[in-house]
Predict the 3D structure of the following.
Amino acid sequence: MNPSPLTTRRPGPTTLSADPWQTHAGSIVAIRDETPGVRSYDLSIVDAAVRARYAFAPGQFNMLYLPGIGEAAISISSDPATPQLLTHTVRAVGNVTDALAKLVVGDRIFLRGPYGKPWPLGDLAGGDLIFVAGGLGLASQRAAILDVARHRDRFGRVTILHGAKTPSGLLYPSEYAAWREAGIDVDCTVDAPEAGWTGSVGLVTDLLAQLPLEPGRSGLLCCGPDPMMAGVATGAAKRGLGPEAVWMSLERNMSCAVGQCGLCQFGPFFVCLDGPVFRYDRIEKLLGVRCL
Amino acid sequence: MTNPLPAKIAVAAPAHVRRPRVAVYKFASCDGCQLQFLAAIGKHPELLSKVDFVHFLEASRAVEPGPYDIGFVEGSVTTAHDAERIREIRRECRTLVTIGACATSGGIQALRNWGKIDEFVAAVYASPAFISTLATSTAIAEHVPVDFELRGCPIDTGQLVEILTALIVGRKPRVPSTSVCAECKAEGVVCVAVARGVPCLGPVTQAGCRAICPAHGRGCFGCFGPSDTPNLVSLNLHYEAAGVPRDELLRLVHGINAWAPPFRAEADRLAAAPHVKVAAP
Amino acid sequence: MILGPEALQRLIEVLALEYRVIGPTVADGAVVLRDLASADDLPTGWIDEQDGGHYRLQRDESAGPFDHVVGPHSLKNFLFPPREPIARFERVEGVWEECAPAAPERPLAVIGMRGCDLAALAIQDRVFLRGDSGEGEAIDPAYQRRRNGLFLVAVDCRRAAATCFCHSTGSGPAACSASAGRQADLALVDLGPGPADGVAPCAGPRRYECRIGSERGAAVIDAIAADLPLRPSPPEDVAAAERVPVDLERAMWARERSDGGPGRSLDMENIRDLLYSNLEHPRWLEVADRCLSCTNCTLVCPTCFCASVTEVADLSGDAVTRERHWASCFSLDHARMHGTSVRHTTASRYRQWLTHKLGGWIDQFGTSGCTGCGRCITWCPVGIDLTAEVAAIRETPAPSTGPTP
C-alpha cells in the first residue's frame, strides 16, 4: 500500500497483524546529531516484505522499542514518499531515548506503527499553510514539510515559523536552504541570541503577529509545548485564524498506541487514536482545564 | 523521603565495559536489609558476575578502596560521627541508593524523635556519660542527596535485583509508587479492611511487598512508607468512624516509617486533635 | 429444563472435561471467583452484606449457592488478568529477536455470572475486540482467545446488595437480555427448595430453571442428561423463573424511592454532558479530601481496562518478557510525562475516573463504562459512592458554558 500524496486518510498500522504488540526489527542506518541532546536516527525495517508495505502519513508516529528498556512514541520525521527509510528525531529525556542515544549505526531496534491521525494536508490543499514549531516540535512537521515541498504547486503561500531557546536549538538548520528553494518561507526566532545571531529574538507568536496572511485560505499547523501552542492559538485568533483553522499535535503518556491501555486519555479522546493531531476547536476547552 | 523516581540517575559504566564496583554500608539498623542482599545473591548467584561487591562488611572483611560506582546505604543517622561519615560516602559513590525504612525515613528508632533523648539514655544505659548520640534518628536523604530509594522493612529482594539490573543496563529502576492495594488486587487478596474491619495502612503505603501482610489476613503496617499521594487523614477518619480506637491508629502510624513526613504529620494530628466521634461518611 | 443439585454437580464435572471451571466460593471472608472442584465449593448458606467501604459475609442457612451478590472479583480477573506476558525477546549472539507468543491456556467456564457481569463483559469486548476499522483500533489476541473459548453459566440475582444499582444503568438485574446483548451458554434461576415428596412443602432439594443459550450449552445439557434424567420445566416453573428478575427490579426501584432506604441509583440522563460541562466543579476538590487515590475502585471495576507494560528482564540481560499489568488513573504514573504527572492532584484523578467511566467511554465505545455492580462503592476503603458524587454535581451544576468536547 502506498498512500496517495497529501492523504488525509491515515494508513493503518503496517505492523498491525493479529497482535497489536508485535514489533518489527529495524536497523539503524544513520545517526545525525541535530541540536544539543537531540539526534536523528534513520531506520530501515529488516523484513523486506514489511518494509515494502510500510507507509505513513506526515504527523503519524511509531512506537520504538528497545528490549529490556521499554517503548516510546516518536514522530516520523522523514519524507513519506520514501518510507523505506524512517527518520526519528529524538531528545534523550527518558529510559528509551537515553538508551537510544547509546546505540550506533547497525544496531537493532524494534518498531510498530504508524499510528495516529496525520496533519490534514489533503484538506488544506489549495490554501496557504503556516507551520509553527517550538523546538523539537519541528520533528513532527518535517515529514509534512517534505511532502508539501514535493507537491509545492498544490498550495499557496507556505511559511514555517520556528522558535527555539537559542540559535543552536533550531532544528534541521542545514535543510532550510532547500526548503526555501522549494518555495517555502522559513522564519526563525530565538529566546536568547548567541554570538553571530542576526535573526529575530522573541517568541514564535511575535513572528505570527507580523506574518502577512489571509485568514479565509490559511491553515496553521502547530507543534510544541502545551503553553506555547495555547499562545499560538490565541495569536492566530487575533489574526483572524479561528480554532477551526488551527491544528495541534499533542503529546501524552502512551503505551499501546491502539486505544486499549487508556494511558494517553485527554478528556474523551485517546491521543493515540483521535490524535496526536487535533483540530483546535475539538480541544480548545479541554486545553484550558488544569491537570486534565 | 525523596521522590523515588529521580529525573536522572548517574549510572555506572555499562556492563560490557566493566563490572560496576559496589559498596554496601551500614548505619543505625538491624542489618536485615544487608541480609536481603545476601538472600538476593543466594537466589541469583549470577549477580556476582554482574557486579563486584568490593566493600560489603556483612559479606567479607576484604575491602577495596573507593571511589565506587554504586553505594547502598542501610540504616539511619543517629550520631554526629554518622552524619560526617555519610558525607564522605556520598563523595566516594557515583550513585547512592538508600535501602530500607531506616535509611529512607529514620526507621523505628525515629520514635526517639518524639521523646527526650537524655531520658532514654538514662533509662537504658548504666553509664549514660559514655553514650554519644544525636537527639534524632533521620533518613540519609536529610543529610546528603540520594539518587534512589528502595523502601521496605526489610527491602524486597525482587526490587533489589530490579535496581541492580537497571543500574547495570543503564535505565531508571522501576519501582511502583502506587499503594499496596494495587498488589492486593493483582494477587486476588480480599481487602482485610473492607471485608473484616481490620485497620490497614495499605491504601496509603507504597507497594513493593506483594501485599504479604493482607495475604496472611492482617493489616498492612506501612513498612514500605507512604505511597505517592497518601491521604492518611481520610483513611483514619474512616477507621475512627468505624470504631477503631484512636490510640490504636496512632500506634499504627507510629511504626517503622513514623518519621516519613506524611506519617509524621498524621501521628502529630492524631496525638494533638481532640478525640471526636465522626459520623460515618 | 429443571436441574436439581445432582445436575448442578454434574454440570461442573462435565464442564471440567473441557474447561478450567471458575465460580463463586468463600475465601478470606468474601465470595471470590476461583477454580471449582465441585458444587460443594459454591457459597451455599452465605449471603453478603455490602455498603460503602463495607463487606461482611453472613451465615444464612436458607441461602442457596447463588444468593450472594457480587464479590471483589469479576470476569476481568480472568479474561484480562492483572498481569500477563504480551511479548518476549531474546538476545542470541548479540542480536535481539522477538519470540513466538506463549501457548494458549485451557479455555474457561465461569459459573454464576450476573446481569452486571455479562454487561461488563459486553463492555470489555468493545475495548479489546474493536477490530481494525481503518482507524487504528486493534483486537487484543489474548483476550480474544479467552473470550472465544469462554463458556458462561449465568444466574439471575434473587437479592440485591445496598450497593447494587444495575436497575438504573440498564445492566440488570436480569442476567440475560437479548436486547441488551447479554447472553450466556446456560442461564439458571434458583427456584428455591422444591416440594418434598408428600412431606412438608419446600423442604425438598433445590431446583434450578435452566435455559439454553447456545449450541455449546445444549451439548453440555445433553451430556448431563446422558447420566441424569432431566425433565422439562413445567409452565409454572418457567413463569416463576421469569418473575425473579422482574420482582427484584421492582423491589430495587421501590427501595430507592423510599426515603433513607438502602438503595442506590444512578441517573444516567445526559450524564456525559453533565460531567464534561462540570470539569471545574468544586465537588472534585471535596471528594479529593476523602479519596485515598489507592486505586481500589479501578481495580475492582469489571470494565476498567487501563494497563501499562513493564520490561521483566533476567539478570543475564539476554531475555526480556514484556508484562502487561493493570494500571489505574489514580496512580501518579498513569499520566506521567517527562518525569512529572499531568494529573498530580487527587481531584484531577478522581475527575478523570468518573468523567471517563460515565462520559468519555460513551465517545470511545458507544456505551457508559458503568454496570451498576457497586464494587467501587463497597471496596473503596473509605466508602466513596459514585452515585452520590454524580448526584452532588447534578444538584449544583456549573452554568452552561456551551457545547462540551
